[in-house]
Write a structure and sequence with these properties.
heterodimer, A: mainly alpha, Cytochrome Bc1 Complex, Chain D, domain 2, B: 216 residues
């Protein structure tokens, strides 16, 4: 029995517990651990700079907002007026308010400004003006946008006082409080109807041409308005996305005041598939050619305040430079070379850009770049889109959003041709 | 494996350290940041719509957290500014989401304010975008011979409209759209708001590089 219990020495001991002798940790493991610790601490310090930078940026923005919202008790200084004039008025009226022959009325020693004084100037800046106007015995027939949505009371007072005193040698002034009253009174009013519209505003106004009789409203005007505000059984209303005043939002564009020929071309492009947007493709399918023209005229004739504010954290100074001068190091021409001074739009091919939604502009520029939008004449925009970086797109979009909206120009309205109608009725 | 006590103590210590750093301290920070000024509480209809949003599991495909310019082009997509903690003050549970199978919806009310569009899109996303992979939600709608007064009729193209009668939205669909229309965080974010600033340094460096290139 004893021999049987004795374990065979060749077999492993069944009661054996495996164990490891303590051994030194290899040196490379220490090195890796130390390197990781150093890397971690460096990253933490590095990222804490990031927070500091962001805090600084926010503090700067906050200071700007506080400065902009603090009511200024003191009267605006003439220097401020001069600078604001150069930023907002000089691009059309000239640096010294000399105007442009046959196109833009002068503000320097102008008989209308002299008769009206600072108050009348404030009224015109607030509402804009369009139609026949006689200044210094010369005829003008242009459109000036309303600046109400981009300039605050203090700025408008500074500009009006600068034009009245420095350019016309008048003593009349307005205070920011008076400007605020005029702003309240002019809310939702259309631009002044040319020289004749000013008759009630300015005593001793030089003789003015009669206002152009508005074109007889199209018999379909009510139907078009209903289409734009209520849609049909198949399609949503235009206003449900583009806003009651056609001001747009985010990537939905502002339509108010764009040239009807441009709007009609875009709708046709959606129909033909040369411009692509799912929601618009859906809508244009059930629009007739006549309805397209009527809607283009409806939005082309609409004057509405800007619904756009810079919101993409773009660099406004950089955006202004691209818009006014372009960036030839990147082969980018100035936006305003084609799209008109202050981005008011030129003709059928170059839409107004002023007061356009920043997300829409940046998004479209990215689409030109990527090639998913490709309906510009001569492929001009594709080249520009490719040259602009992401930060440039945001900069220029934010700058354009800070501009006053272009005034609607009723003269650009498209005629509904008889043949279009007949063709549709025959269908 | 016979030193249970030190093992148990060590694992509990690691767990409580992680809980402290990942749950307790962030929770205290969020409590301090409070409600974003400008954020309005949900209306009754919006709150009902939010419950529909939660029950349909929208967050499995849609996030509610737009990112900063330096991180992603969400602003250019029209998705709105980067959100801060205070923007979610009335959301319990929050619907942040991590998947972006569909677009971010934090500012859908700003980007697509149309009730008609939202209803058509919920009834049949393919009616608008043929390539869309979003499920249709026909059970939020009813097929009627004739719309009763007060009914909201869904606008549909002929290919998707019923042969007779109309499609009207049920209360759930209307509430959901009211909630979506109210998703508008377009007020300025509070300067002190709790947010991810990790990309500001990168953005500043990028900005400096661009400026250096432009000045050349």
């Amino acid at each position: 029995m004893r021999d049987k219990n004795k374990q065979d020495p060749r077999l492993p001991d069944e009661t054996f517990e495996p164990y490891e002798e303590p051994r030194r940790i290899p040196m490379p493991v220490y090195w890796i651990a130390i390197a990781l610790a150093i890397w971690g601490v460096t990253m933490l310090v590095h990222v804490s700079y990031s927070t500091k930078i962001a805090d600084k940026e926010r503090a700067a923005l906050n200071d700007q907002a506080i400065a902009a919202n603090t009511p200024v008790k003191s009267e605006p200084t003439p220097e401020a007026g001069k600078a604001l004039f150069a930023d907002n008025c000089a691009s059309c009226h000239g640096d010294a308010g000399e105007g442009v022959a046959d196109a833009i009325p002068p503000l320097h020693a102008s008989d209308v400004a002299k008769a009206g004084g600072a108050t009348a100037i404030t009224h015109i800046v607030m509402r804009g003006i369009g139609g026949p106007l006689i200044v210094d015995k010369a005829d003008y027939d242009g459109e000036m946008p309303s600046f109400a949505s981009v300039l605050d009371d203090k700025d408008i007072a500074a500009i009006a006082n600068f034009v009245a005193s420095d350019l016309n040698g008048l003593k009349s002034t307005v205070s920011p409080a008076q400007v605020a009253e005029i702003r309240t009174a002019s809310a939702d009013l259309d631009p002044w109807d040319g020289g004749s519209g000013l008759a009630g505003l300015i005593n001793g106004l030089p003789a003015q041409p009669a206002s152009e009789t508005a074109a007889a409203p199209s018999p379909d005007a009510a139907a078009t308005a209903a289409l734009a505000t209520h849609g049909t059984n198949e399609i949503w209303s235009c206003a449900s996305c583009h806003g009651d005043k056609g001001e747009g939002t985010q990537t939905i564009p502002r339509l108010a005041g764009l040239a009807p020929a441009y709007l009609a071309k875009q709708l046709h492009d959606f129909k033909e598939g040369t411009r692509v947007n799912d929601s618009m493709d859906y809508v244009v399918k059930s629009l007739s050619d006549t309805q397209i023209i009527e809607l283009a005229n409806y939005y082309g004739a609409m004057s509405s305040p800007s619904g756009a504010r810079p919101s993409l954290k773009g660099d406004l100074a950089r955006g202004e430079k691209i818009a006014l001068e372009g960036d030839w190091s990147k082969n980018v021409p100035a936006c305003f070379t084609c799209h008109g001074p202050s981005g008011i739009g030129v003709g059928d091919k170059f839409p107004g850009l002023a007061a356009q939604q920043p997300a829409y502009i940046a998004h479209q520029l990215a689409m030109w770049q990527g090639g998913s939008r490709h309906n510009s004449p001569l492929g001009l925009m594709a080249g520009i889109g490719k040259s602009l970086s992401d930060a440039d797109r945001r900069a220029v979009a934010d700058y354009l959003a800070s501009l006053p909206p272009a005034a609607a120009n009723a003269k650009l309205a498209l005629a509904v041709s008889a043949t279009t109608k007949e063709a549709e009725n025959g269908q | 494996m016979n030193r249970y006590l030190p093992l148990a103590i060590l694992s509990l210590a690691i767990l409580s350290f992680a809980t402290l750093l990942l749950v307790i301290i962030p929770g205290m920070q969020i409590d301090k940041s409070g409600v974003s000024p400008g954020l309005k509480p949900y209306t009754v209809a919006q709150a009902r719509g939010r419950a529909v949003y939660v029950s349909l599991g929208c967050l499995y495909c849609h996030s509610q957290q737009p990112r900063d310019e330096a991180q992603a082009p969400d602003g250019e997509r029209g998705w709105g500014r980067a959100s801060v903690a205070g923007d979610y003050a009335y959301d319990t549970p929050h619907q942040l989401g991590t998947m972006r199978t569909g677009p971010d919806l934090m500012n859908i009310g700003d980007r697509m304010p149309s009730q008609g569009w939202q209803l058509t899109h919920l009834y049949q996303p393919r009616a608008i975008s043929s390539w869309s992979i979003m499920p249709a939600y026909p059970y939020l709608f009813a097929h009627k011979d004739k719309a009763d007064p007060g009914d909201v009729v869904v606008k549909l193209p002929p290919a998707y409209a019923p042969k007779t009668g109309v499609i009207v939205a049920k209360q759930d669909a209307l509430d959901l759209v009211t909630y979506l229309q109210g998703m508008k965080h377009d007020y300025a974010p509070p300067a002190e708001g709790l947010r991810d600033d990790g990309y500001a340094l990168m953005a500043a460096q990028q900005h400096n590089n661009d400026a250096a290139k432009a000045s050349k």
